[in-house]
Amino acid sequence: MAIAAPRSYVREARRRVAPKRERIRPIIERLAAAHPDAVIALRFRDPIQLLVSVMLSAQTTDVTVNRVTEKLFRKYRRPEDYLAVPLEELEADIRPTGTFRMKARNLRGAMKMLLEEFHGEVPEKLDDLVRLPGVGRKTANVVAAERGATQGIVVDTHVRRLSQRLGLTRRDDPVKIERDLMRNVPREDWARFPHLLIWHGRRVCDARRPRCEDCVLADLCPSSRV
Ligand code: SF4
User: Fold this and answer.
1) Which of the chain's ends, N or C, has fewer CB atoms near its CB within 10 Å?
2) pTM for this one?
């Protein structure tokens, strides 16, 4: 019996729509109207808490991170605090976020570097942020954007999927997707654009079952089923 090929929205992106340069503004405006609450879901009060939250959020939910950090941030207030306890204690304190051994090691490495090279402050430049252990381009972009120092566009799994479905990129590699988006998304929207795609991805453009019939972008989307 023949096995059905997996549906590829990228390959199916054949519907005729205007060039992406013309569609990008209405896409942003409609998403902003549909998701006025599209902001980062992590809870933090200062740049150190922001950095820690984003580092802990890899491969887990924001809800889990917020639950863990509520207690964590009462105990660990400064970079020194992450180095003052035995590694096993920090591991236990972040355990529910998963891959806790690696995250604990990276947190300590990052805090050590902040103290040794950045006077205990979180740097704003992407080039400095990505030098911190455990901080990749995505984490660095989130931290920079939330501090008002946006230098790129965050590409996570939702941003990648929606950018492809919307025909804003044909790439798979996050760095190349980011480059494509930076060419088309107006600079002033670089910070909010990923949040809009993330919330739209969670609420409407689901990975397996996109609800095109309820989507405000249906007439702008080459992958729309309606
Ligand atoms: S849900 Fe919207 S963005 Fe996603 S594929 Fe359908 S029309 Fe396109």
Assistant:
1) N
2) 0.88
DSSP 147: T
Residue 169's identity, in one-letter code, is: T
Q: Is 210 in the pocket of ligand 1 (CB under 6 A)?
A: yes
Radius of gyration (Cα) for the chain, nearest Å?
A: 19
Alpha-carbon distance of 201 to 188, in angstroms, equals 22
Amino acid identity of residue 13, one-letter, is: A
User: Which pLDDT belongs to residue 10?
Assistant: 52
Nearest to 107 by CA among 72, 74, 83, 75: 83
Low-confidence ranges of the chain (pLDDT < 50): 1-6, 12
223 lines ligand 1 (CB under 6 A): yes
> DSSP letters along 69-94, please?
HHHHHHH--SHHHHHHS-HHHHHHHH
Of residues 156, 211, 224, 186, the one with CA closest to residue 29:
186
Residue 8's pLDDT is 52
Q: Which two tokens stand for residue 72?
A: 């964590």
Vertex 40 angle, CA 89 and 149, to 5°: 95
